[in-house]
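Example 3.
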Amino acid sequence: MATQQSDSSFAWNRIALYATLGLLVAFYLSPLESAIMTAFKTQTGFFETSPLVPPTPSTFTLDAWGQAFNRLQGGLVNSLLFTIPATLLSATLGSLVAYGLTNTNWRGQAFVLVLLIAGIFIPYQSVLVPLSRFWSVVDPATIFSWLPPVANRSGLVALAVTHTAYGVPITTLLFRAHYKSLDSSMLEAARLDGASIAKIYRRIILPLSIPMFAVTLIYQFTNIWNDLLFALVLIQQPSNDVVTISLTALQGSMVSQYNLQMAGAFITALPTLLVYILFGEQFAEGVAGGGA
Amino acid sequence: MAELQLDNITKTFDDGGDEIVAVDDVSIDIQDGEFLVLVGPSGCGKSTTLRTIAGLETITDGAIRLGGEVINDKRPQDRDTAMVFQSYALYPHMTVRENMSFGLEESTDLPDDEIRERVTDTAEMMGIAELLDRKPGELSGGQQQRVALGRAIVRNPAAFLMDEPLANLDAKLRAQMRTELQRLQENLDVTTVYVTHDQTEAMTMGDRIAILDDGELQQVGTPLECYHEPSNLFVAGFIGEPSMNTFEAHTDGDRLVAERFEYALSERHEDAIDGDNVVFGIRPEDVEVGSDPDDSHTYEVVVDVVEPKGDENYVHMAFDADRENPETFTATIGGLRRVEAGDTVVVRFPPEAVHLFDGDTGEAVLNRSLDTVEDVEPLL
């Protein structure tokens, strides 16, 4: 009797648990659902049906996707042009700085580390004015005037450099935590084996950092790709508009085309999703601290 | 291959303004091909000493010579030593072959096929040839240990430095590796400095042992010298398991008066003693249990605890078993002799087995006589 009773109360607990979970899933996914559905509907379809309901054959259209892609493709290319170098540079520099701060010994290490940590906490908004002043003095268009393809993209160069600089503190901190967990006697063994500091980095540290590179690449790519603030300040020519700027332009000034905006948002988010999928496995390993 | 000389090496660390002396004026001459064990309790400076030889620590004072050449100021990679670490310190992302090749690639100009051949030869000698394509993570602790040794051997250094290389193995494997390592070192005939806190490893493996305490060298000698002729109370207590029994005492004419017993001194003893305070020491195996009460130097004691080891029993006994926390001393007796806790037995401290130490300085003033040492006659 007693066991039966506890069995049934156990079953009720399970039902309640799954019901709650189901509700939460519906709650979190409904905006996504309505966005996808809206992106596939005509403007009339959007006004006449509930956003959560799939489109009927008469209200179904791919026009929004085509139009959004046409209007965003320039921005997508521009975004890739500055996001990829900035991501790779900030990860590589972070790894090098962290190596210099953990496995070598020199005076002033602590001071540099404190500076870097402080750098993490500087909000974007507080540097906007000095940043735009800086890039008007150091103008990439003038510096690269001998190389027109780069000079024409001066805003993107400024963005890449700014995001690299902004990313180095956090990537350094992530790599530093990883390098501190490495077996110090392994590095001593490498020194006794005759490897120089540079060789130890290339042959030991770098191969062991791959999971941490996945973490920083995903983190930095998402952050830099999604940034709008710096882009608004540093991009002057419309030809250099990045995807986040192009996306805001989809809003229109008179009529809101919701299907266009939704499709545009999905297209803009796609590269970050791809990066997650590509590096997901290493990312999990890096976050779990697998290291080796 | 070369002799290694430590000349008055001193290493101090700066700890927030306080100077900590980790190694204090240590001098040891290690012969070419000798196996020297540095032993001592944790924090005695043995690992620091080893690391100064490797170049991972700089010395504050003194000189280190390898093959007659001063190497203090050389970088670790230029010193021609190879080290085996307690954690094995293998490169986890490399195969065993890559692990073993790394040192040759970085420190020599050997062509690839030569490196390949040397690695294969060493791996075969170490019995790890079939593991060459695996990564360290796929190996057992014992196998990793062999790879770590192989990695050191393949470089053919002038000296091996080993920092507790067997400490992470289980007891059975450790005993096996002990013998193997000794055989290996004998065959390779490379000067070796081996650090351990385990006095059994020190006793069984070393050609000579150097005992360190608190950064200071206590004694350097063959294992049997250190065991039978300890230079002071620390060495006497550290070498030997179970430890030597010691009793604080003072002289009273031709007698030694300890807290719980008196001991009639022989002429040999009296000649050695200088001063009133004396520490009386006797090894557990020298305590004769079950003696005739009419003999000299016999005492009636009560058995407190018996620890059977199979081949022998450790018998902890007390003069004052009626007390709450009796002060015990230990005797070892044959495994087939039976005593039980609470038994009253007669023990004898034979005069020839007695060690005497200065009560103030701890220096040995008299060690046991070795007149009774017998040789086993070889059959052929």
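Chain B is about 25% helix and 35% strand. The CA atoms of residues 312 and 336 of chain B lie 7 Å apart.
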